[in-house]
UniProtKB/TrEMBL annotation:
<dbReference type="InterPro" id="IPR045626">
    <property type="entry name" value="PGDH_ASB_dom"/>
</dbReference>
<protein>
    <recommendedName>
        <fullName>D-3-phosphoglycerate dehydrogenase</fullName>
        <ecNumber>1.1.1.95</ecNumber>
    </recommendedName>
</protein>
<dbReference type="Pfam" id="PF02826">
    <property type="entry name" value="2-Hacid_dh_C"/>
</dbReference>
<dbReference type="InterPro" id="IPR006236">
    <property type="entry name" value="PGDH"/>
</dbReference>
<dbReference type="InterPro" id="IPR029009">
    <property type="entry name" value="ASB_dom_sf"/>
</dbReference>
<keyword id="KW-0718">Serine biosynthesis</keyword>
<dbReference type="InterPro" id="IPR002912">
    <property type="entry name" value="ACT_dom"/>
</dbReference>
<dbReference type="InterPro" id="IPR006139">
    <property type="entry name" value="D-isomer_2_OHA_DH_cat_dom"/>
</dbReference>
<dbReference type="InterPro" id="IPR036291">
    <property type="entry name" value="NAD(P)-bd_dom_sf"/>
</dbReference>
<dbReference type="InterPro" id="IPR045865">
    <property type="entry name" value="ACT-like_dom_sf"/>
</dbReference>
<comment type="function">
    <text>Catalyzes the reversible oxidation of 3-phospho-D-glycerate to 3-phosphonooxypyruvate, the first step of the phosphorylated L-serine biosynthesis pathway. Also catalyzes the reversible oxidation of 2-hydroxyglutarate to 2-oxoglutarate.</text>
</comment>
<dbReference type="Pfam" id="PF19304">
    <property type="entry name" value="PGDH_inter"/>
</dbReference>
<comment type="similarity">
    <text>Belongs to the D-isomer specific 2-hydroxyacid dehydrogenase family.</text>
</comment>
<dbReference type="Pfam" id="PF00389">
    <property type="entry name" value="2-Hacid_dh"/>
</dbReference>
<keyword id="KW-0028">Amino-acid biosynthesis</keyword>
<keyword id="KW-0520">NAD</keyword>
<comment type="pathway">
    <text>Amino-acid biosynthesis; L-serine biosynthesis; L-serine from 3-phospho-D-glycerate: step 1/3.</text>
</comment>
Length: 527
């Protein structure tokens, strides 16, 4: 008998695959304290949650019998994925079931915000017939800026078109074809932020999207902009939003999600321009039924030895193979992540080439890990070596794997090349005896740098003073240089600098570098 604990409210109708299957005992206990959960979890084979239960490393460590965690929804930021993977626990989610509900909730919030509906209702409840205080604005003809045009963002964009809004969107994986199909204009993130009369965010919460709308972004927005967040708290900096509303720059905000949840007292709610719901985007009868069916189905599949439909973690590599290729898995992941930071346009092709010793190995797990590194910095932790290829297919990125005998003098060489409409970028890495992983080539330039932490790749003209200007600018930004290499194709021609620095180089500092004389491009790389 497999024991399943359901620790967040799931639709009873949606749980039928599990309730009807033989050999499962389901306990629904949705109000457990952390201590109670820690105490009971060792008795269970499966755990089903939504966003409220914090499945942290402590809980996972205590879960000695647990084989599978099902997240009845999209976001998996309440689950410590690496702790689960380390302990061999499979995590599955339900990525599609609540898309429609979240999109409808976003539209409801957008319209309620434009017409002050919650505020007017509250006033009427307080026995005031006040028609003057709640003059709204129309949506028709206004511009909606959408940041993150994935499942939900795309649905919102289509609905906004129905309201006769103009839609401008930014998503690193947005293709011309998709933009055309949805009838949206494509822009950079800065262009979207500056163009919107209304702005709505639909990205996961990642290192790259944390405080995406912060003090600097608010400065560049249109005065009187309205902001909607039905994705994740933390994408918008709540303190910066508060200040922008108080200063009059932002006319109002509609929030379904918050940096810390749950709460009952929040300073943003003291502002009359803010309307809010307690994380209700996915809370419809329909969505809850579908997401519960999806995860319950996967739990049954897992225990009856069938392939699960929505795996979020776990490698499919046999242990013996894993041992041989393990060091290259990490190198591949780092190279994938490195090349993502070099991509300045939609990536259409992703090629991984193996040479030297690597020719004799089964390299497909390395390719999957490289692809995972590439996609993860944009799509978050839900991308893993199991599902990375699936994500690439969905995004229309062609992935190839090749072996060649040309290892350019290295014992083994792993090269990742991306092809975009605007050009190609390439990075190679190797494992050096005693020194570990190194990046040895970027485009056609030879470098030698450990793929770690904060790097800066600069293309410049080989002219006196260029290096000094970069050094001065970084000093002004209080960024310390740890190592620096320069290389050039020919005297006075194209040249590069590869720096490792002591802290994250933010977009403002990168822009400053790009504006320097003789500097053609600068890219911050976070590994
Ligand atoms: N309020 C609620 O109850 C619900 C919230 N959500 C949240 O909504 C968000 C979106 O969900 P889905 O559309 O299903 O996910 P998705 O994975 O289909 O779409 C996310 C999109 O964000 C894009 N993205 C990643 N980094 C970006 C960046 N720096 N700038 C712009 N775009 C970036 C990705 O390329 C991707 O297309 C997630 O955070 C999810 O957890 C989802 C369902 C319900
Ligand atoms: O699916 C998601 O990402 C959500 O945010 C929905 O969260 P919930 O299942 O309603 O707690």
């Amino acid at each position: 008998m497999y024991k399943v604990l359901v620790s967040d409210p799931l639709s009873k109708e949606g749980m039928h695959p599990l309730l009807e299957a033989e050999g499962f005992k389901v306990d629904v206990q949705t109000n457990l304290t952390k201590e109670e959960l820690l105490d009971r979890i060792p008795n269970y084979d499966a755990l089903l949650v939504r966003s409220q239960t914090q499945v942290d490393a402590e809980l996972i460590q205590a879960a000695t019998r647990l084989k599978i965690i099902g997240r009845a929804g999209v976001g998996i930021d309440n689950i410590d994925l690496s702790a689960a993977t380390e302990q061999g626990i499979l995590v599955v989610n339900a990525p599609d079931g609540n898309t429609n509900s979240a999109a409808e909730h976003t539209m409801a919030m957008l319209m309620a915000l434009a017409r002050n509906i919650p505020q007017a209702f509250l006033s009427l409840k307080n026995k005031q017939w006040d028609r003057k205080s709640f003059i709204g604005v129309e949506l028709k003809g206004k511009t909606l800026g959408v940041i993150g045009l994935g499942r939900i963002g795309a649905e919102v964009a289509q609905r906004a078109k129905g309201q006769r809004m103009n839609v401008i969107a930014y998503d690193p994986f947005l293709t011309d074809a998709k933009a055309e199909k949805l009838g949206v204009q494509m822009g950079t993130v800065q262009e979207v932020i500056a163009a919107g009369d209304f702005l709505t965010v639909h990205t996961p919460l990642l290192k790259e999207t944390k405080h995406l709308l912060g003090t600097e972004a608010f400065k560049t927005m249109k005065p009187g902009v309205h902001i909607v967040n039905c994705a994740r708290g933390g994408i918008i900096d709540e303190d910066a939003l508060y200040d922008a509303i108080v200063s009059g720059k932002v006319a109002g905000a509609a929030l379904d999600v918050f940096e810390v949840e749950p709460f009952v007292d929040h300073k943003l709610l003291e502002l009359p321009q803010v309307i809010a719901t307690p994380h209700l985007g996915a809370s419809t009868i329909e969505a809850q039924e579908v997401v519960a069916v999806d995860v319950c189905d996967d739990v049954v599949r897992y225990f009856t030895n069938q392939a699960v439909k929505n795996p979020v973690n776990l490698s499919a590599v046999p242990k013996e193979v894993l041992k041989k290729i393990e060091p290259y898995l990490l190198l591949g992941e780092k190279l994938g992540s490195f090349i993502q930071d070099l991509a300045d346009d939609m990536v259409e092709e992703f090629h991984v080439t193996y040479s030297g010793d690597l020719q004799d190995l089964d390299v497909s797990p390395i390719t999957r890990n490289t692809l995972k590194g590439f996609l993860r910095s944009r799509l978050g932790e839900s991308v893993n070596e199991v599902n990375a290829k699936l994500f690439a297919d969905r995004l229309g990125v062609t992935v190839t794997e090749q072996k060649t005998s040309q290892s350019k003098g290295f014992t083994s060489l792993l090269t990742v090349e991306i092809v975009m409409k605007t050009g190609r970028r390439k990075v190679s890495g190797t494992l050096l005896n005693g020194l570990g992983a190194r990046i040895v080539r970027v485009d056609d330039f030879i470098v030698d740098v450990a793929p770690e932490a904060h790097l800066l790749f600069i293309r410049h003209k080989d002219q006196p003073g260029a290096i000094g200007r970069v050094g001065m600018t970084l000093a002004e930004e209080r960024i310390n240089i740890a190592t620096m290499q320069v290389g050039r194709a020919e005297k006075g021609g194209a040249a590069i600098m590869m720096l490792s620095v002591d802290k994250y180089v933010g977009p403002t500092s990168v822009e400053k570098l790009k504006r320097l004389d003789d500097i053609e491009d600068a890219q911050a790389i976070e590994l």
